[in-house]
Write a structure and sequence with these properties.
Blueprint (H helix, E strand, L loop, with lengths): L5 H4 L27 H4 L4 H7 L2 E3 L5 H11 L4 E3 L5 H15 L3 H4 L11 E3 L14 E5 L4 H7 L4 H27 L6 H7 L9 E5 L6 H4 L9 H4 L27 H5 L3 H7 L2 E3 L5 H11 L2 E5 L5 H15 L3 H4 L11 E3 L14 E5 L4 H7 L4 H27 L6 H7 L6 E9 L11 E4 L5 E5 L6 E5 L3 E4 L7 E5 L1 H6 L9 E3 L7 E9 L5 E2 L13 E2 H11 L3 H4 L3
Parallel strand pairs: 1-2, 6-7
Antiparallel strand pairs: 3-4, 4-5, 7-15, 8-9, 9-10, 10-17, 11-16, 12-15, 12-17, 13-14, 13-16, 18-19
Helix pairs in contact: 5-8, 7-8, 15-18, 17-18
Bound molecules: 2-oxoglutaric acid and fe (ii) ion.
């Protein structure tokens, strides 16, 4: 998020909350760049308890515990604080009574541009590009004037409650500050300055967060997202030297995730979630359509790609990544290049580095292979060529099955299926075993950009998909199966009928994981739009290459930028 100087930007728009009463759907103004959900789900309950202390104010060591918590965390919880339970409940119910008023009523007490009290959006709104899913009511001292506007005959209950609560807060603040400041041995004058007095400042803020149709996009983003062009440096291309690395560098240490969330899935649940479809079964087409609509991802077996070739691609990939860092860097991707050895292309969009090195092939890889193995490049090239041909065939068959039920035109079908001018990328991914897998990310959360992806996990789990309401789910590696997933272009072409599945790759401590991804898309110069079969297109029409450059620049936001 860009942060602005507040004065440049403060307008009424930063004060009036959206009309939560009448809103239908989820507005672009409130859609923040998608963030990695896992980063938010940090702790198990046990961990949380040990992290932020809950302190019994009536206990004899309260003062010591409070001092420690202030130093360590700057935050703690208190119980036995002496504030009557009924009053706490009353404040909540009076707050709910206020926010339950109509938008029209609440706007009668809207905060003014330079005012401090009343109804409105968070005061930090002008500093962010996106709006927050929030409305608030700010009280300083008496709230009788506003309350009389809201409830001309029934304001007293609200005011009495808020007054009583403010008095209780003042007492509690007084006690807490005594306990916090005494051990610092401050002067009496300093103590008087800090504790509540007739001229201290106090603010009572009631916050309301209505239920939200799209919570994963409405919460405050954790990762700063950067415009790639501002930031692309060599540092985003050269992977860490996995050969000589010792320990686990801070550059690769992501905020901790909740491991338990991933472990709770039973094998059954995992299996039932993402279908494994037998391509020679008579109902394959129906199952594929269902999977595209429901998950945007499925696995296929009996796909016709020779098992030996699949194994050869894996062993040739391992041969490449087993070269020394020095050798691999001879074919390092250039800053504006698309092929060669390097870090994930999504690296510039994240503050932390990924536990990953990759090798990207588009068409022939003979030039790079000759640099790596001057006399033995043929085996590598032949394998990658044969595999790309097989992927093209499989993509062709899959797209026929996926698009036929949509009843697309022949022209649209020709646009989608592989042809001499379509785009295809073969991506070899390497995730070396990692000393600290719970803090590392192999490939950060993303959607694939083109139409369809075929992924081979090469026998080791690691791929996870994000399912709204369920969180991150492992996609188990199934012997002989490929994972097929919908990319942004198919999401757009299907008029959002098929989700572009958000996914990531995780790493492990014991095994060096390899995966092979094949991405297929229509010609760069061709026009992209929802199929003409859809009466109400929900995306704008633009050139494929225009979409890809939006993705390259705005990443998480590219899809929302092309919404009609
Ligand atoms: O390695 C994996 O499992 C996922 C790879 C991936 O998502 C990609 O290459 O786009
Ligand atoms: Fe991907």
């Amino acid at each position: 998020m860009t942060t602005h100087s507040k004065n440049d930007l403060l307008t009424d728009d930063h004060i009036t909350p959206i009309d939560f009463e009448s809103i239908d759907g989820f507005p672009e103004s409130h859609s923040w760049p998608q963030f990695d959900e896992s980063l938010n789900k940090i702790q198990t309950h046990d961990l949380k308890d040990s992290l932020i202390p809950v302190i019994d104010l009536a206990s004899p060591n309260a003062k010591t515990l409070i001092s420690q918590a202030c130093e360590t965390w700057g935050v703690f919880q208190v119980v036995n604080h002496g504030v009557p339970f009924e009053l706490v409940k009353k404040v909540e119910s009076e707050s709910r009574r206020l926010f339950a008023l109509t938008t029209h009523e609440k706007c009668k007490v809207l905060r003014s541009v330079d005012g401090a009290t009343g109804y409105g959006s968070p005061k930090l709104s002008p500093f962010f590009d996106k709006r927050m899913w929030h409305e608030g009511f700010t009280i300083m001292g008496s709230c009788v004037d506003d309350a009389k506007v809201l409830w001309p005959h029934e304001y007293q209950r609200f005011c009495d409650t808020m007054d009583a609560y403010q008095n209780q807060m003042k007492l509690l603040i007084h006690n807490l500050l005594l306990m916090i400041l005494e051990p610092l041995d401050v002067t009496q004058e300093e103590m008087n300055w800090a504790i509540p007095a007739h001229d201290s400042q106090s603010v009572l803020q009631l916050n309301s967060y209505p239920s939200c149709p799209n919570p994963s996009r409405a919460v405050v983003a954790i990762m700063t997202t950067n415009s790639k062009n501002d930031l692309l440096t060599d540092d985003h291309i050269t992977p860490i030297d996995f050969e000589s690395i010792d320990g686990f560098p801070e550059s690769h240490s992501w905020p901790q995730f909740d491991e338990s969330l991933n472990k709770i899935q039973t094998r059954d649940l995992k299996d039932s979630l993402i279908p494994v479809i037998d391509l020679v079964s008579p109902n394959a087409k129906t199952l594929i359509s269902q999977a595209c609509e429901t998950w945007g991802v499925f696995q296929v077996v009996n796909h016709g790609v020779p098992f030996e070739l699949v194994k050869k691609v894996e062993s040739e990939s391992r041969r490449l990544f087993a070269l020394t860092t020095h050798e691999k860097c001879k074919v390092l991707r250039s800053v504006d290049g698309a092929t060669g050895y390097g870090s994930p292309k999504l690296s510039p969009f994240f503050d932390k580095r990924m536990w990953h090195e990759g090798f990207t092939i588009m068409g022939s890889c003979v030039d790079d292979a000759k640099v790596l193995w001057p006399h033995e490049y043929q085996r590598f090239c032949d394998t990658m060529d044969a595999y790309q041909n097989q992927m093209k065939l499989l993509i062709h068959n899959l797209l026929l099955m996926i698009l036929e039920p949509l009843d697309v035109t022949q022209e649209e079908m020709n646009w989608a299926i592989p042809a001499h001018d379509s785009q295809s990328v073969l991506q070899l991914n390497s995730y070396p075993s990692c000393p600290n897998p719970s803090r590392a990310v192999g490939l950060a959360s993303h959607t694939d950009s083109l139409l369809l992806t075929i992924l081979n996990q090469c026998g080791i789990d690691g791929l996870e998909i994000f399912v709204e309401g369920l969180g991150w789910r492992r996609v188990p590696s199934v012997e002989g199966a490929f994972v097929v997933n919908v990319g942004d272009l198919l999401h757009i072409f299907s008029n959002a009928k098929f989700p572009a599945v958000t996914h990531r790759a995780m790493v492990n401590q014991s095994e060096h994981r390899i995966s092979v991804a094949y991405f297929h898309g229509p010609p760069a110069e061709s026009r992209l739009a929802p199929s003409s079969k859809f009466q109400k297109p929900c995306f704008k029409s633009l050139l494929v290459k225009e979409y890809l450059s939006l993705k390259y620049k705005h990443f998480f936001e590219a899809l929302s930028l092309v919404r009609a």
